[in-house]
Amino acid sequence: MDLFGVPPVNSIEAAPAAGRTVTLPWTRWALLGAAGGAAAGSLVAGATSGLASYFARQVLTPARVRPQDLAILAVTGSGAEREIILPATAETTAPGVYSVYFDGGAGHARVGEVTSYSPRERTVQRKVERVYSGDLSRAVRGWWGGSAYPDPAAAGLPSEEVRIAVEGGEAPAWLVPAEHDGRTWAIMVHGRGATRTEGLRAVPAARRLGLASLLISYRNDGEAPHAPDRRYGLGMTEWRDVEAAIGFALARGAEDVVLFGWSMGAAVSLQAADQSVYRDRIRALVLDAPVINWIDVLAYQARLNRIPETVGRFSQWLISNRAGRLLTGLAAPVDLKMMDWVSRSDHLAVPTLILHSELDDFVPYGPSAELAERNPELVTFERFSSPGHTKEWNVEPERWERVVAGWLSQVLRRPSA
């Protein structure tokens, strides 16, 4: 399963109007083309269009249910001595603190250090640091996550629940006050399919620099109001909710802001810095595993799912052209070229720190490095080697916080703690 919830395919699955599923193995394409002539060609074209539409919709449509793709093999001990046994993967064997979500997300446990690893059985055993909700002893499946805490209180942070006026209603957010000063606010923008808990990892570093932190929700994330078309804009629409958050911060006494963005949240932050009426109040961008170029990410995801290159390109066309709206459900096309910051590197006008792992298996780090090469005066690139996507802090929290605090202290001209 990949970033967009698209399973790797060995077949084309298209859903006709009647709702039936048509499955055509790739190996039959050549046979159909050779034997069927024009009719087969028409069928292949229709199947190509169906797969491209399916892929585009998976990219753009918020998932209703999170796949529980992690087997929970056993839970041993009790109380402070509990441990969890999981299949051994690059992520589940990595050092650091993570979360296991279960019971469809109703259950949440924080897991810590690896206590044993069996290459022969391909299992790993980790310490259970805390169960926040649910009965972990009865869980059999769940998913792995990088957000270690469910709320600011669990991370030992004071906070206030606030609501920000956005299109369609109000979006909930956490406001963590500054320890001192508070003229600059950090606005935390989570990634696609994540929630505002993702930004909790950055709050301690921000507080040490005297920043208040606003951890926001935005359209289609399950907390904020849905977009009218109930589709992701990949940053082209979500930035307006960030703009609303900036306006909220300014109304509460902030003079300027720093945007922190993870994955698609970084793409959202880049658009805010480019298009918002408050762009002159954005002092800096801190981007973790950012989507710098959606065209590159979509092409990578297509290859990962063994989707033919022509189909992948067609899905991009559907997303970025008005003619594709009936198939994608978008109210307006997404301008993918406008979100290619490698090509638009000279348009970036805000000091930017990028933290990105060379082992990121969802959003390749190449465009991040290239953007830094093309705009070295404004962009600083910090390369990590953590497995998985947006797990840089989980594997090396001290380094992550040191780099962020050191860089921001220079940009903001403030001493770092």
Automatic annotation (TrEMBL):
Matching entries from SUPFAM superfamilies are given as: alpha/beta-Hydrolases
Record-level Gene Ontology MF annotations: hydrolase activity
The UniProt keyword set, sorted, is: Hydrolase
Record's protein name: Alpha/beta hydrolase
Domain AB hydrolase-1, by residue range, is 187-364
Q: What organism is listed for this UniProt entry?
A: Arthrobacter mobilis
Q: Name one Pfam family in it.
A: Abhydrolase_6
